[in-house]
Amino acid sequence: MRNGMRVGLISFGVQEFAALHETCVEAGHEPVVYGYSRSMRPRRATDDGVAEVVGQITAALPAGMDLLLPGSSEGLGAALRGYDLDLVVCYGFSWRLPASVLRIPRYGVANVHCSMLPKYRGPAPVPWAIRNGDSHLGVTVHRMNEWFDAGPILAQQDGIPIPDDVTPARLWPKLSPALRRVLALALDGVTDPAAGEPQPAQGVSYAGLMEPEFSVVDTAKTAREVHNQVRTFRFMGPGLGPVATVDGHRLKILRTSLTPADGPRLDCADGPVWITAFEPVT
């Protein structure tokens, strides 16, 4: 189908691959290969839990689709060269790709990023939006260059609400429709070398991985900041939470409330939060 593009998809989960794949097909393009990074950084040991995710992706692969599990950027590039790709669409890939890889598809690499760039460049835009108490987030599709999330913007949409009790499963039904719309717009223009607006120099921020200190509750922070800290961990994974000492006991805090609720009370700088789910830390 040479009237459409041959597309490679790089992402991190079954529903994410499906959203990219279906959007490309609806726009008249042909996904021909998937790629999944088995580590947060290239040339590192395989991350915990990857085997389970790879099994889920493999079980859902469309017939005839190849799945790449690169260990390095160079290995990814060597594999992609064999697919005669017009475009790679990337969503949730944590590696910085060198120019030698970005040049392999005819029209480069388009990256889906969950923020209104240039806000929250980097690998953790949604956790930082939650941490900062943002009421909503955006989606951007941009041309990928050699710097993190800094390439020209092809399409954007703002205003995706972040629920208070936010988890990936709760956010996805709100995020997925916007992601599909923005990607479809980007696909319409990506073959034009002139398409894409340079990112403004103002408003740039970086959303890196959380610092180790963030895993401990600091009651000198406001109640809202502590509540958002717990929400951030809840989003990052089930059973995750920061540690606090409450009435002499160390607790991993899994969920909090800013209004009176059943559970221990934790006094913060400007008022309390109520701990509604926790586990003892031994």
Question: Short summary of the structure?
Answer:
This protein has helices at 14-26, 50-60, 73-80, 99-102, 125-131, 168-189, 223-236; strands at 6-10, 30-35, 66-68, 87-91, 109-113, 136-143, 153-161, 243-246, 249-257, 265-267, 272-280. It is α/β, with parallel strands linked by helices and 282 residues long. It folds into two domains: 6-189, Formyl transferase, N-terminal domain (Rossmann fold); 212-280, Formyl transferase, C-terminal domain (Methionyl-tRNA Fmet Formyltransferase, Chain A, domain 2, Roll), CATH 3.10.25.10.
CATH architecture of the largest domain: 3-Layer(aba) Sandwich
What oligomeric assembly is this protein in?
A: single chain
Number of helices: 7
How much is the average pLDDT? 95
What Rg is obtained from the alpha carbons, in whole angstroms? 20 Å
Give the H and E element order.
Answer: EHEHEHEHEHEEHHEEEE
The CATH topology of the largest domain is what? Rossmann fold
Biggest beta sheet attributes: 7 strands, mixed
Widest sheet: strand ordering:
3-2-1-4-5-6-7
Strand content: 15-25%
- N-end to C-end Cα span: 60 Å
The CATH class designation of the largest domain is Alpha Beta
Structural class, from secondary structure content?
alpha/beta
The number of domains is 2
The CATH superfamily of the largest domain appears as: Formyl transferase, N-terminal domain
Number of strands: 11
What is the percent of helical residues?
25-40%
Uncertain ranges: none
Shape: elongated
